[in-house]
């Protein structure tokens, strides 16, 4: 029987987190990320914990997935939204409930804190499977479009 355990990521996980982030960018957006920039970005989460935290999923004792949680203050709600980002599940572990277990742990931690007003994430507009997964977890599609202006 498969056992999925969720734990806080450790510095020793940085190379794997970098690898998985690069794989996710390739798979979802066809982008090749600069490994040096990505390594600095992942490492900064450990150096500056106020930026967020990574969780790692292990299946039968082997790391198989991760996600990053970052924070966004909402003055309207007097609380933080937790943004789920950098989600990745290794190919052989997909469709075994790895993301569901990661999400459940994020939700549990948010509820325990009490100052988190909601959970949010981005999803590619064409990724129907992911959208169905998120809906199945009780998340709802928002009515906002996302705009960006890249500065570097």
TrEMBL record:
Asked if the record carries the keyword Magnesium, the reply is: no
Q: Which PROSITE patterns match?
A: GNAT
- Cross-referenced Pfam families: Acetyltransf_1
Q: Which InterPro entries match?
A: Acyl_CoA_acyltransferase, Bact_Acetyltransf, GNAT_dom
Where is each N-acetyltransferase domain found? Answer: 4-152
Record's keyword terms, sorted = Acyltransferase, Transferase
CDD domains for this protein: NAT_SF
Q: Please provide, alphabetically and separated by semicolons, the GO molecular function terms listed in this UniProt record.
A: acyltransferase activity, transferring groups other than amino-acyl groups
The record's PANTHER family line, in alphabetical order, gives: AMINOALKYLPHOSPHONATE N-ACETYLTRANSFERASE-RELATED-RELATED
Name this polypeptide is given: Acetyltransferase
Q: Which organism is it from?
A: Mizugakiibacter sediminis
């Amino acid at each position: 029987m498969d056992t999925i355990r969720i734990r806080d990521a450790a510095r020793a996980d940085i190379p794997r987190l970098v690898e998985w982030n690069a794989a996710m960018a390739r798979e979802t957006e066809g982008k090749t990320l600069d490994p040096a920039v990505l390594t600095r970005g992942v490492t900064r989460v450990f150096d500056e914990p106020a930026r967020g935290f990574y969780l790692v999923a292990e299946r039968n004792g082997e790391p198989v997935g991760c996600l990053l949680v970052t924070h966004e203050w909402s003055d309207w709600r007097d609380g933080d939204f937790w943004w789920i980002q950098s989600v990745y599940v290794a190919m052989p572990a997909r469709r075994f409930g790895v993301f569901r277990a990661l999400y459940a742990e994020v939700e549990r931690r948010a509820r325990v804190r009490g100052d988190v007003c909601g959970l949010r994430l981005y999803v590619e507009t064409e990724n129907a499977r992911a959208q169905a997964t998120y809906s199945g977890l009780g998340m709802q599609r928002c009515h906002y479009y996302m705009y960006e202006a890249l500065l570097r």
